[in-house]
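Bumping with the actual sequence this time:
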Amino acid sequence: MTKFPSDEYDEAFTNFILKAFPDFLKKIEGTLKLKGHKYLLSNYMTLADIYLAGLFFAFPYDETEEHCHIMQSVVEKFPKVQQYVQTLLNEF
Protein backbone atom coordinates (compact mmCIF):
# COMPACT_ATOMS: atom_id res chain seq x y z
CA MET A 1 0.00 0.00 0.00
CA THR A 2 1.37 3.40 -0.98
CA LYS A 3 1.46 5.90 1.84
CA PHE A 4 1.06 9.59 1.20
CA PRO A 5 3.52 11.98 2.77
CA SER A 6 2.03 12.97 6.10
CA ASP A 7 1.36 16.63 5.27
CA GLU A 8 -0.31 15.80 1.95
CA TYR A 9 -2.42 13.07 3.52
CA ASP A 10 -3.46 15.32 6.41
CA GLU A 11 -4.42 18.11 4.03
CA ALA A 12 -6.37 15.77 1.75
CA PHE A 13 -8.18 14.20 4.69
CA THR A 14 -8.97 17.61 6.18
CA ASN A 15 -10.46 18.76 2.86
CA PHE A 16 -12.41 15.53 2.56
CA ILE A 17 -13.82 15.56 6.10
CA LEU A 18 -14.70 19.29 6.09
CA LYS A 19 -16.13 19.62 2.58
CA ALA A 20 -16.49 16.56 0.33
CA PHE A 21 -17.86 14.05 2.86
CA PRO A 22 -20.46 16.42 4.39
CA ASP A 23 -21.55 17.50 0.87
CA PHE A 24 -21.96 13.83 -0.08
CA LEU A 25 -23.96 13.12 3.09
CA LYS A 26 -26.11 16.21 2.54
CA LYS A 27 -27.18 14.83 -0.85
CA ILE A 28 -28.02 11.45 0.63
CA GLU A 29 -29.89 13.14 3.50
CA GLY A 30 -31.92 15.17 0.99
CA THR A 31 -32.82 12.09 -1.03
CA LEU A 32 -33.84 10.16 2.07
CA LYS A 33 -36.03 13.04 3.27
CA LEU A 34 -37.59 13.56 -0.16
CA LYS A 35 -38.35 9.90 -0.82
CA GLY A 36 -39.25 8.90 2.74
CA HIS A 37 -38.37 5.26 2.12
CA LYS A 38 -36.50 2.74 4.24
CA TYR A 39 -33.73 2.65 1.65
CA LEU A 40 -32.32 5.28 -0.65
CA LEU A 41 -34.74 4.86 -3.55
CA SER A 42 -37.53 2.62 -2.26
CA ASN A 43 -38.63 0.41 0.60
CA TYR A 44 -36.61 -2.39 -0.98
CA MET A 45 -32.85 -2.60 -1.17
CA THR A 46 -31.39 -1.76 -4.57
CA LEU A 47 -27.90 -1.80 -6.03
CA ALA A 48 -27.57 1.84 -4.94
CA ASP A 49 -27.94 0.74 -1.31
CA ILE A 50 -25.44 -2.08 -1.73
CA TYR A 51 -22.96 0.37 -3.28
CA LEU A 52 -23.41 2.87 -0.45
CA ALA A 53 -23.15 0.11 2.14
CA GLY A 54 -19.76 -0.74 0.67
CA LEU A 55 -18.64 2.86 1.03
CA PHE A 56 -19.92 3.25 4.57
CA PHE A 57 -18.56 -0.12 5.70
CA ALA A 58 -15.15 0.56 4.11
CA PHE A 59 -14.51 3.88 5.85
CA PRO A 60 -16.71 5.36 8.60
CA TYR A 61 -17.88 2.03 10.01
CA ASP A 62 -14.69 0.02 9.62
CA GLU A 63 -13.06 0.03 13.04
CA THR A 64 -9.66 -0.68 11.46
CA GLU A 65 -9.85 2.61 9.51
CA GLU A 66 -7.64 5.19 11.23
CA HIS A 67 -10.20 8.02 11.16
CA CYS A 68 -13.43 6.03 11.37
CA HIS A 69 -14.63 7.77 14.55
CA ILE A 70 -14.13 11.21 13.01
CA MET A 71 -16.12 10.12 9.98
CA GLN A 72 -18.84 8.58 12.17
CA SER A 73 -19.20 11.89 14.01
CA VAL A 74 -19.81 13.62 10.67
CA VAL A 75 -22.46 11.04 9.77
CA GLU A 76 -24.17 11.72 13.12
CA LYS A 77 -24.87 15.29 11.95
CA PHE A 78 -27.24 13.85 9.36
CA PRO A 79 -30.03 11.99 11.22
CA LYS A 80 -31.64 10.39 8.15
CA VAL A 81 -28.25 9.15 6.93
CA GLN A 82 -27.41 7.84 10.39
CA GLN A 83 -30.73 5.95 10.51
CA TYR A 84 -30.12 4.66 6.97
CA VAL A 85 -26.63 3.42 7.84
CA GLN A 86 -28.00 1.69 10.93
CA THR A 87 -30.56 -0.04 8.71
CA LEU A 88 -27.77 -1.17 6.40
CA LEU A 89 -25.67 -2.37 9.35
CA ASN A 90 -28.62 -4.40 10.62
CA GLU A 91 -29.31 -5.88 7.19
CA PHE A 92 -25.73 -6.95 6.56
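The C-alpha coordinates above came from a reply further down the thread. The longest helix spans residues 6-35.
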